[in-house]
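Re: the request from the purification team.
They wanted to know what the chain is likely to look like in 3D before they choose a buffer screen. I agreed to run a prediction and write the result into the notebook, where they can find it.
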Amino acid sequence: MRILVFTEGTILMHAAGYGLTPEERVKQVQAGSHGIYDYGSYIPIGDSVIKLTNWQSQGVEISYLTSRKTDNEVQSVQKVLTQHGFPKGELYKRTGDETYADVVKRVAPNVLIEDDCESIGGLAETIGSQLKKYGYNDLTIIIVPEFGGISDLPEDVKTLPQYLESV
């Protein structure tokens, strides 16, 4: 099984959001609060490192998708993943005119885990929404609340399907 995990808002957040509720973190982003663009200072959301490490130990291939496009920003996200002990895996980004849906089709994971994009317009802004528009049906998607993390997803990757929402 190959799982592609969106980084910002799904497993990583701005450091100023530490100790706040997911709803308060969304408000910080919507307000353009200090630190939301300092990608090198991002921190893991909840137990995302432990969860992904556990899944990887069960034979799952983990890869990541960032919203960042510039080399410096992508390097900052990669550094955060490494610094906080996320499992090794490729970090993908959009290039040129690519949409997130284009990247997902290129990477071809079995499962995509992303957040609900609450801070930028909700479910209509998700990758899953984009994929549905294109009629892409070769993927299963898990949508978690933005800045809520993946800690509530099951430890045993075999039980993950009960959380899945098919595209």
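For the purification team: The chain is about 30% helix and 15% strand.
Please add any questions underneath this entry.
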